[in-house]
Write a structure and sequence with these properties.
By secondary structure, the protein is α/β, with parallel strands linked by helices. It is built from 13 helices and twelve strands. The chain has helices at 16-27, 38-58, 71-86, 101-112, 130-136, 159-169, 190-193, 242-253, 258-277, 304-312, 331-335, 340-344, 357-373, and strands at 4-5, 65-68, 92-96, 116-120, 141-147, 174-178, 197-201, 212-216, 282-284, 294-299, 316-317, 346-350. The protein starts with a strand and ends in a 5-residue tail after the last helix.
Length: 378
Protein backbone atom coordinates (compact mmCIF):
# COMPACT_ATOMS: atom_id res chain seq x y z
CA UNK A 1 0.00 0.00 0.00
CA UNK A 2 1.46 3.34 -1.05
CA UNK A 3 2.22 5.83 1.71
CA UNK A 4 0.47 9.17 1.29
CA UNK A 5 1.95 11.81 3.58
CA UNK A 6 -0.11 14.97 3.90
CA UNK A 7 1.07 16.31 7.26
CA UNK A 8 3.87 18.56 6.06
CA UNK A 9 3.03 21.41 8.44
CA UNK A 10 3.91 19.06 11.30
CA UNK A 11 7.17 17.95 9.69
CA UNK A 12 8.56 17.15 6.27
CA UNK A 13 10.47 14.27 4.76
CA UNK A 14 14.17 15.16 4.77
CA UNK A 15 15.38 15.75 1.22
CA UNK A 16 18.27 13.67 -0.09
CA UNK A 17 20.63 16.66 -0.22
CA UNK A 18 20.10 17.44 3.47
CA UNK A 19 20.39 13.81 4.59
CA UNK A 20 23.65 13.35 2.68
CA UNK A 21 25.05 16.55 4.17
CA UNK A 22 24.22 15.45 7.72
CA UNK A 23 26.04 12.16 7.21
CA UNK A 24 29.06 13.94 5.73
CA UNK A 25 29.23 16.31 8.70
CA UNK A 26 28.95 13.42 11.19
CA UNK A 27 31.51 11.16 9.54
CA UNK A 28 33.97 13.40 7.70
CA UNK A 29 33.72 17.03 8.74
CA UNK A 30 33.02 16.28 12.41
CA UNK A 31 35.17 18.89 14.12
CA UNK A 32 33.94 21.31 16.76
CA UNK A 33 33.60 24.70 15.03
CA UNK A 34 35.05 26.40 18.12
CA UNK A 35 38.25 24.33 17.98
CA UNK A 36 41.36 26.21 16.86
CA UNK A 37 42.67 23.62 14.43
CA UNK A 38 42.01 22.73 10.81
CA UNK A 39 39.25 20.24 11.62
CA UNK A 40 37.45 22.93 13.60
CA UNK A 41 37.98 25.56 10.91
CA UNK A 42 36.56 23.17 8.32
CA UNK A 43 33.38 22.66 10.37
CA UNK A 44 33.07 26.40 11.02
CA UNK A 45 33.34 27.12 7.30
CA UNK A 46 30.46 24.73 6.57
CA UNK A 47 28.35 26.26 9.34
CA UNK A 48 28.94 29.78 8.04
CA UNK A 49 27.82 28.66 4.57
CA UNK A 50 24.52 27.51 6.11
CA UNK A 51 24.22 30.85 7.90
CA UNK A 52 24.80 32.70 4.63
CA UNK A 53 22.12 30.69 2.86
CA UNK A 54 19.56 31.44 5.56
CA UNK A 55 20.47 35.13 5.46
CA UNK A 56 20.13 35.33 1.68
CA UNK A 57 16.69 33.69 1.81
CA UNK A 58 15.53 36.44 4.18
CA UNK A 59 17.46 39.32 2.57
CA UNK A 60 19.39 40.04 5.77
CA UNK A 61 23.04 40.07 6.83
CA UNK A 62 24.79 36.85 7.77
CA UNK A 63 25.75 38.00 11.27
CA UNK A 64 22.07 38.64 12.08
CA UNK A 65 21.30 34.90 11.90
CA UNK A 66 21.62 32.81 15.08
CA UNK A 67 21.26 29.04 15.13
CA UNK A 68 18.88 27.37 17.61
CA UNK A 69 17.32 23.94 18.06
CA UNK A 70 14.16 24.97 16.19
CA UNK A 71 11.11 27.20 16.12
CA UNK A 72 10.08 26.69 19.75
CA UNK A 73 13.46 27.74 21.12
CA UNK A 74 13.62 30.68 18.72
CA UNK A 75 10.16 31.86 19.78
CA UNK A 76 10.98 31.49 23.47
CA UNK A 77 14.26 33.36 23.06
CA UNK A 78 12.54 36.16 21.16
CA UNK A 79 9.70 36.67 23.63
CA UNK A 80 11.53 36.28 26.91
CA UNK A 81 14.68 37.95 25.60
CA UNK A 82 12.79 41.00 24.33
CA UNK A 83 10.51 41.32 27.37
CA UNK A 84 13.41 41.19 29.83
CA UNK A 85 15.53 43.60 27.78
CA UNK A 86 12.78 46.22 27.44
CA UNK A 87 10.88 45.85 30.71
CA UNK A 88 11.97 49.29 31.93
CA UNK A 89 10.48 50.99 28.86
CA UNK A 90 6.97 49.59 29.09
CA UNK A 91 4.84 46.66 30.16
CA UNK A 92 2.54 45.76 27.26
CA UNK A 93 2.98 42.82 24.90
CA UNK A 94 0.67 42.41 21.90
CA UNK A 95 0.11 39.06 20.23
CA UNK A 96 -2.82 37.11 18.77
CA UNK A 97 -5.14 34.39 20.03
CA UNK A 98 -4.08 32.04 17.21
CA UNK A 99 -0.33 31.81 17.80
CA UNK A 100 1.63 28.58 18.06
CA UNK A 101 1.80 27.17 21.59
CA UNK A 102 5.46 28.18 21.91
CA UNK A 103 4.38 31.82 21.64
CA UNK A 104 1.06 31.46 23.50
CA UNK A 105 2.56 29.71 26.50
CA UNK A 106 5.54 32.08 26.61
CA UNK A 107 3.14 35.04 26.59
CA UNK A 108 1.05 33.45 29.33
CA UNK A 109 4.18 32.96 31.43
CA UNK A 110 5.18 36.59 30.94
CA UNK A 111 1.67 37.57 31.98
CA UNK A 112 2.19 35.70 35.26
CA UNK A 113 5.43 37.64 35.72
CA UNK A 114 3.51 40.92 35.60
CA UNK A 115 3.48 41.90 31.95
CA UNK A 116 0.22 43.01 30.36
CA UNK A 117 -0.49 40.77 27.37
CA UNK A 118 -3.13 41.59 24.75
CA UNK A 119 -4.37 38.67 22.64
CA UNK A 120 -6.03 39.89 19.43
CA UNK A 121 -8.90 37.74 18.20
CA UNK A 122 -9.23 37.22 14.43
CA UNK A 123 -12.41 37.08 12.40
CA UNK A 124 -13.88 33.77 11.25
CA UNK A 125 -11.39 33.60 8.35
CA UNK A 126 -8.40 34.12 10.62
CA UNK A 127 -7.75 37.74 9.67
CA UNK A 128 -6.45 40.38 12.09
CA UNK A 129 -7.42 43.92 11.08
CA UNK A 130 -5.15 46.97 11.01
CA UNK A 131 -7.71 48.73 13.17
CA UNK A 132 -7.43 46.06 15.85
CA UNK A 133 -3.64 46.39 15.89
CA UNK A 134 -3.80 50.18 16.00
CA UNK A 135 -6.20 50.11 18.93
CA UNK A 136 -3.87 48.13 21.21
CA UNK A 137 -0.31 49.18 20.26
CA UNK A 138 0.58 52.17 22.43
CA UNK A 139 3.61 53.89 23.97
CA UNK A 140 3.83 51.21 26.67
CA UNK A 141 4.09 48.39 24.12
CA UNK A 142 7.52 46.73 24.20
CA UNK A 143 6.87 43.70 22.00
CA UNK A 144 4.53 42.71 19.20
CA UNK A 145 4.64 39.02 18.28
CA UNK A 146 2.65 37.75 15.29
CA UNK A 147 2.99 34.67 13.11
CA UNK A 148 3.29 35.14 9.36
CA UNK A 149 1.14 32.12 8.49
CA UNK A 150 -1.11 30.21 10.84
CA UNK A 151 -0.01 26.62 11.27
CA UNK A 152 -3.54 25.19 11.47
CA UNK A 153 -5.52 27.10 8.85
CA UNK A 154 -2.88 28.70 6.63
CA UNK A 155 -4.33 32.17 7.31
CA UNK A 156 -1.86 34.90 6.34
CA UNK A 157 -1.49 37.56 9.03
CA UNK A 158 -0.80 41.25 8.23
CA UNK A 159 2.86 41.41 9.24
CA UNK A 160 3.49 44.09 6.60
CA UNK A 161 1.39 46.60 8.59
CA UNK A 162 2.87 46.18 12.06
CA UNK A 163 6.06 48.25 11.84
CA UNK A 164 4.19 51.34 10.64
CA UNK A 165 1.67 51.03 13.46
CA UNK A 166 4.45 50.65 16.05
CA UNK A 167 6.23 53.72 14.73
CA UNK A 168 3.07 55.84 14.59
CA UNK A 169 2.28 54.92 18.18
CA UNK A 170 5.74 55.98 19.32
CA UNK A 171 6.19 52.58 20.93
CA UNK A 172 9.61 51.18 21.89
CA UNK A 173 8.38 47.75 20.75
CA UNK A 174 10.42 45.10 19.02
CA UNK A 175 8.50 43.26 16.31
CA UNK A 176 8.78 39.46 16.34
CA UNK A 177 7.46 37.21 13.57
CA UNK A 178 7.01 33.47 13.98
CA UNK A 179 7.84 32.55 10.40
CA UNK A 180 7.97 28.78 10.79
CA UNK A 181 5.16 28.09 8.28
CA UNK A 182 6.26 30.86 5.88
CA UNK A 183 10.03 30.31 5.70
CA UNK A 184 10.99 29.05 2.25
CA UNK A 185 7.39 29.26 1.00
CA UNK A 186 6.71 32.95 0.50
CA UNK A 187 9.20 35.78 -0.18
CA UNK A 188 10.19 37.53 3.05
CA UNK A 189 12.38 40.63 3.01
CA UNK A 190 12.71 41.24 6.72
CA UNK A 191 14.44 44.62 6.45
CA UNK A 192 11.67 45.99 4.26
CA UNK A 193 9.01 44.60 6.59
CA UNK A 194 10.65 46.22 9.61
CA UNK A 195 10.94 42.92 11.47
CA UNK A 196 13.31 42.87 14.45
CA UNK A 197 13.12 39.17 15.36
CA UNK A 198 12.18 36.21 13.17
CA UNK A 199 11.91 32.49 13.93
CA UNK A 200 12.20 29.58 11.50
CA UNK A 201 12.71 25.82 11.65
CA UNK A 202 14.62 23.33 9.51
CA UNK A 203 12.17 20.43 9.58
CA UNK A 204 9.38 22.38 7.86
CA UNK A 205 11.49 22.79 4.69
CA UNK A 206 12.73 19.20 4.23
CA UNK A 207 15.65 19.62 6.61
CA UNK A 208 16.23 17.62 9.81
CA UNK A 209 14.56 18.18 13.16
CA UNK A 210 16.63 19.89 15.84
CA UNK A 211 17.84 22.95 13.95
CA UNK A 212 16.35 26.39 13.47
CA UNK A 213 17.21 30.05 13.25
CA UNK A 214 16.49 33.27 15.06
CA UNK A 215 17.07 36.46 13.11
CA UNK A 216 17.95 39.42 15.32
CA UNK A 217 18.14 42.75 13.56
CA UNK A 218 21.43 44.50 14.09
CA UNK A 219 20.81 47.04 16.86
CA UNK A 220 17.91 45.12 18.43
CA UNK A 221 18.83 44.03 21.94
CA UNK A 222 17.47 40.91 23.60
CA UNK A 223 18.77 38.94 26.57
CA UNK A 224 19.87 35.30 26.30
CA UNK A 225 18.01 32.44 27.97
CA UNK A 226 21.13 30.35 28.49
CA UNK A 227 24.67 31.03 29.69
CA UNK A 228 28.01 29.30 29.46
CA UNK A 229 29.82 29.76 26.16
CA UNK A 230 30.87 32.11 23.40
CA UNK A 231 28.92 30.37 20.63
CA UNK A 232 26.40 32.39 18.60
CA UNK A 233 27.79 35.59 20.15
CA UNK A 234 26.63 34.36 23.58
CA UNK A 235 22.95 34.64 22.62
CA UNK A 236 22.67 30.86 22.24
CA UNK A 237 25.73 29.30 23.93
CA UNK A 238 26.61 25.63 23.64
CA UNK A 239 28.26 23.59 20.91
CA UNK A 240 26.31 24.02 17.70
CA UNK A 241 24.56 20.98 16.18
CA UNK A 242 26.74 21.14 13.09
CA UNK A 243 25.28 18.13 11.17
CA UNK A 244 21.75 19.48 11.58
CA UNK A 245 22.66 23.09 10.86
CA UNK A 246 24.59 22.23 7.70
CA UNK A 247 21.81 19.89 6.57
CA UNK A 248 19.38 22.79 7.02
CA UNK A 249 21.66 24.85 4.80
CA UNK A 250 21.45 22.18 2.11
CA UNK A 251 17.64 22.05 2.47
CA UNK A 252 17.55 25.81 1.89
CA UNK A 253 19.77 25.45 -1.16
CA UNK A 254 17.53 22.67 -2.52
CA UNK A 255 14.33 24.74 -2.26
CA UNK A 256 12.62 25.14 -5.65
CA UNK A 257 11.80 28.66 -6.88
CA UNK A 258 9.05 29.93 -4.58
CA UNK A 259 6.75 31.12 -7.36
CA UNK A 260 6.89 27.74 -9.09
CA UNK A 261 6.21 25.78 -5.90
CA UNK A 262 3.46 28.16 -4.81
CA UNK A 263 1.73 27.62 -8.15
CA UNK A 264 1.95 23.86 -7.61
CA UNK A 265 0.47 24.18 -4.11
CA UNK A 266 -2.39 26.36 -5.40
CA UNK A 267 -3.23 23.72 -7.96
CA UNK A 268 -3.17 20.89 -5.40
CA UNK A 269 -5.18 22.90 -2.87
CA UNK A 270 -7.86 23.88 -5.40
CA UNK A 271 -8.07 20.29 -6.63
CA UNK A 272 -8.46 19.03 -3.07
CA UNK A 273 -11.15 21.61 -2.30
CA UNK A 274 -13.06 20.61 -5.41
CA UNK A 275 -12.92 16.89 -4.63
CA UNK A 276 -13.78 17.32 -0.95
CA UNK A 277 -16.49 19.87 -1.70
CA UNK A 278 -18.84 17.24 -3.12
CA UNK A 279 -18.91 15.38 0.22
CA UNK A 280 -22.02 16.61 2.00
CA UNK A 281 -20.57 16.63 5.53
CA UNK A 282 -17.39 18.58 4.66
CA UNK A 283 -16.99 22.20 5.80
CA UNK A 284 -13.85 24.21 5.05
CA UNK A 285 -12.13 26.02 7.91
CA UNK A 286 -9.32 27.57 5.84
CA UNK A 287 -10.20 30.76 3.99
CA UNK A 288 -9.95 30.98 0.22
CA UNK A 289 -7.02 33.40 0.63
CA UNK A 290 -5.05 31.18 3.02
CA UNK A 291 -1.57 29.99 2.10
CA UNK A 292 -2.31 27.01 -0.17
CA UNK A 293 0.19 24.74 1.58
CA UNK A 294 -2.50 24.17 4.25
CA UNK A 295 -6.14 23.13 3.97
CA UNK A 296 -8.21 22.70 7.13
CA UNK A 297 -11.66 21.16 6.88
CA UNK A 298 -14.21 19.34 9.04
CA UNK A 299 -16.17 16.21 8.27
CA UNK A 300 -18.99 17.16 10.58
CA UNK A 301 -20.15 14.30 12.78
CA UNK A 302 -16.89 12.33 12.69
CA UNK A 303 -14.41 13.15 15.43
CA UNK A 304 -10.94 14.15 14.27
CA UNK A 305 -9.22 11.30 16.10
CA UNK A 306 -11.56 8.75 14.54
CA UNK A 307 -10.92 10.11 11.06
CA UNK A 308 -7.16 10.25 11.58
CA UNK A 309 -7.04 6.60 12.66
CA UNK A 310 -9.29 5.57 9.79
CA UNK A 311 -6.99 7.26 7.26
CA UNK A 312 -3.79 6.05 8.94
CA UNK A 313 -5.00 2.46 8.65
CA UNK A 314 -5.07 3.13 4.90
CA UNK A 315 -1.55 4.60 4.96
CA UNK A 316 -2.77 8.20 4.60
CA UNK A 317 -1.29 10.59 7.14
CA UNK A 318 -2.93 13.91 8.04
CA UNK A 319 -3.39 15.88 11.27
CA UNK A 320 -6.14 17.32 13.44
CA UNK A 321 -4.13 20.52 14.01
CA UNK A 322 -0.79 21.47 15.49
CA UNK A 323 1.37 18.42 16.25
CA UNK A 324 2.65 20.21 19.37
CA UNK A 325 -0.89 20.17 20.82
CA UNK A 326 -0.86 16.35 20.88
CA UNK A 327 -4.57 16.07 20.15
CA UNK A 328 -5.85 18.81 22.47
CA UNK A 329 -8.81 20.91 21.33
CA UNK A 330 -7.64 23.57 18.88
CA UNK A 331 -7.34 27.02 20.45
CA UNK A 332 -7.00 28.40 16.91
CA UNK A 333 -10.36 27.12 15.67
CA UNK A 334 -11.93 28.15 18.97
CA UNK A 335 -10.61 31.68 18.48
CA UNK A 336 -12.23 31.74 15.03
CA UNK A 337 -15.58 31.17 16.73
CA UNK A 338 -16.32 27.86 15.01
CA UNK A 339 -19.05 25.63 16.39
CA UNK A 340 -17.87 22.81 18.71
CA UNK A 341 -18.88 20.13 16.19
CA UNK A 342 -16.66 21.78 13.56
CA UNK A 343 -13.70 21.97 15.95
CA UNK A 344 -14.11 18.37 17.14
CA UNK A 345 -14.12 17.07 13.55
CA UNK A 346 -11.33 19.23 12.07
CA UNK A 347 -8.68 17.73 9.80
CA UNK A 348 -5.58 19.54 8.56
CA UNK A 349 -4.05 18.54 5.24
CA UNK A 350 -0.70 20.13 4.42
CA UNK A 351 1.12 19.73 1.12
CA UNK A 352 4.72 19.58 -0.05
CA UNK A 353 6.48 19.43 -3.38
CA UNK A 354 6.42 15.63 -3.15
CA UNK A 355 2.61 15.42 -3.24
CA UNK A 356 0.57 14.69 -6.36
CA UNK A 357 -3.04 14.82 -7.54
CA UNK A 358 -3.09 11.04 -7.20
CA UNK A 359 -2.45 11.51 -3.47
CA UNK A 360 -5.41 13.87 -3.32
CA UNK A 361 -7.61 11.41 -5.21
CA UNK A 362 -6.83 8.69 -2.65
CA UNK A 363 -7.36 11.03 0.30
CA UNK A 364 -10.74 12.25 -0.96
CA UNK A 365 -11.87 8.74 -1.83
CA UNK A 366 -11.15 7.54 1.71
CA UNK A 367 -12.70 10.62 3.36
CA UNK A 368 -15.86 9.94 1.34
CA UNK A 369 -15.76 6.26 2.38
CA UNK A 370 -15.30 7.29 6.01
CA UNK A 371 -18.25 9.64 5.76
CA UNK A 372 -20.40 6.65 4.86
CA UNK A 373 -18.69 3.92 6.94
CA UNK A 374 -18.44 5.90 10.15
CA UNK A 375 -21.89 7.49 9.86
CA UNK A 376 -23.29 5.07 12.43
CA UNK A 377 -21.07 6.61 15.12
CA UNK A 378 -22.55 10.08 14.66
Amino acid sequence: MKEIYLDNSATTKVCAEAAEKAIQMMTECYGNPSSLHSKGFEAQKEMELARQRAAELLSVEKDEIYFTSGGTESNNTALFGAAKALCRRGNRIVTTAVEHSSVMESAQRLEKEGFEVVYLTPDSSGHISKEALTSVIDKQTILVSMMAVNNETGAILPIETVRRIIDRAGAPALFHVDGVQAFGKIPLKLKKLGVDLFSASSHKIHGPKGAGILYVRKGARILPLHYGGEQEKKLRPGTEAIPLICAMGEAIEALPPMDRELAQMKELNAYCREKLGVIQSVRFNSGEDALPYILNFSVVGIRSETMLHYLAERNIFVSSGSACAKGKKSHVLSALGLAPERIDSAVRVSFSRYNTKEDIDELCKEVANADITLARSR
